[in-house]
Amino acid sequence: MKIKDFMYFYPEAPKLVNIEQPLFERFSLSKDWIAEKKYNEQRLQLHWWKDRQEYWNRHGAKLKYTPTLEIVDALQSLPCEGYCLFDAGLRHNKTIGVRNKIVIYDIYMLDHELLLGLQYRKRREMLVDLFRTDGDPISIPEHYHIGFKRTFDQVTEDSEIEGLVMKNLNGMLDLNRKAPSKSKWMYKVRIPSGRYKF
User: Is the pTM for the entire model greater than 0.90?
Assistant: First the structure.
């Protein structure tokens, strides 16, 4: 499906699980599941097409955010010809010392083509071709394949990390124009202190 102009799609909502649930352990033991850091950020949909960039929040409204020249340059250097839409997070002023950084979690559209029904593993390959896990100011999250409980304990020592999101590599993208749908392939686990909302 080809899209010619910027439009908002509600991202899928991951289901919340407790770190003590057997389901969490099953994710950790399966080769089809990965875990990635969940940052304390502002949810962002990043729309890009050549010299045009727009930053929208989780409610479909444009953000009052002016990107740095580094961010603009990084996006303008993308090897894409048409409209790209990314599910992302704006890491800016939510954690002391963290400003003007973007983490890209997923890609919804590449060169005007909406990626509905495409497996997450394929979309991740697209992101790896476009961005680096250690990139600055734009990055994609590292993937963890085993030991999710140990990973959770380690990464949440960082004050910017809220928890983990577990993703099934075979998960199919399912977007909605009216309201977020509950994801069938994403789950989240967070620090159980009530410190964060996501």
Answer: yes
